Amino acid sequence: MKQLHGRKRGIGLRVAIQGEFGSNSHMATVAMLGNQTDVEIIACTVSAQVLAKVVAGEVDGAVLPIENSLHGSVAEHYDLLLELPVRIASESLMRIRHNVIAMPGVKLAEVRKVMSHPVALSQCRRFLAAHPEIEVVPFYDTAGSVKHLMKAGLREVAGIAPELAAREYGAEVLVPGVEDHAENYTRFHLLRREDAAGGEAVDGADKMSLAFAVEHRPGTLVAALARLARAGVNLTKIESRPVPGSPWEYVFYVDVRFDSTEEAAAALAALREHCRMVKVLGRYRAA
């Protein structure tokens, strides 16, 4: 796959990500779309900007993380999925590897400060605890920390980021694999505009993500879940998010696996009969 940075006319696919080039989202995009001839990756500062580009038609899609096996769900991305006219087209799982990265020739003993995204730092506590002489500084992005130290020529500063960030900015990996747990995975979604070609389902889809809200009465959530069970789908995840302006009321996000389109349709019909709001966030093949 030929990766192109920035805006260029007439190429195959334009995909927005949150974070800098060399980030985990960049790596996930390469992994998900590696069969494409030309992919233009557009780096954005915040997730809202990423999806605004999708909705406006400025890009063909976006790749965003939705859940990490250690850190949990990305709440902001669930809120954006509900609010905006976008759908999940596919998903992928990627093992997350954190590396200490610095300018070429720098030794670990010279490093006095390490920077990275707070989530990455929280996943490298053992390494950081073993080096109390190194100051820990939160930064807006993993790959962004490497970009910053290289641009500023900071020889006493290291970043914690993917190996791709070292290649992207001409830095070197000082210590590979400093994450606390080897079983550290992030689930990413490829998102497209709701009305994009291809409809709401893909060939071979066996997973569906839904958002629904029930009346604020005892037993309504249990009844909704019972309807999903009777329809024959397998509930694999449930997440709740508060409804803005309605204290103690929630929207529920679920992932379900199904064996046939009829089974998925039955689950949807059962929910719609019972819930005051149901939104299909996407039908796609499970990773």
Topology:
Blueprint (H helix, E strand, L loop, with lengths): L1 E4 L7 E6 L5 H9 L5 E7 L2 H10 L4 E8 L3 E2 L1 H9 L2 E10 L3 E4 L10 E4 L1 H5 L2 H5 L5 E4 L3 H11 L4 E5 L1 H7 L2 E4 L9 E9 L13 E7 L6 H12 L2 E10 L2 E12 L3 H14 L2 E8 L3
Parallel strand pairs: 1-3, 2-3, 2-4, 8-9, 8-10
Antiparallel strand pairs: 4-5, 4-12, 6-12, 7-10, 7-11, 13-15, 13-16, 14-15
Helix pairs in contact: 6-7, 8-9
What report would you give on this structure?
- With 287 residues, this protein is of the alpha/beta class.
- Helix content is 29%, strand content 36%.
- The chain folds into three domains: 2-95 and 184-193, Periplasmic binding protein-like II (D-Maltodextrin-Binding Protein, domain 2); 99-175, D-Maltodextrin-Binding Protein, domain 2; 207-284, Alpha-Beta Plaits.
- The protein has helices at residues 24-32, 47-56, 75-83, 118-122, 125-129, 142-152, 163-169, 220-231, 261-274; strands at residues 2-5, 13-18, 38-44, 61-68, 72-73, 86-95, 99-102, 113-116, 135-138, 157-161, 172-175, 185-193, 207-213, 234-243, 246-257, 277-284.
- Strands 1, 2, 3, 4, 5, 6 and 12 form a seven-stranded mixed β-sheet that branches. Strands 9-8-10-7-11 form a five-stranded mixed β-sheet. Strands 14-15-13-16 form a four-stranded antiparallel β-sheet, with helices on both faces.
- Helix 1 (24-32) links the parallel strand 2 (13-18) and strand 3.
- The longest helix has 14 residues, at 261-274.
- The two termini are 21 Å apart.
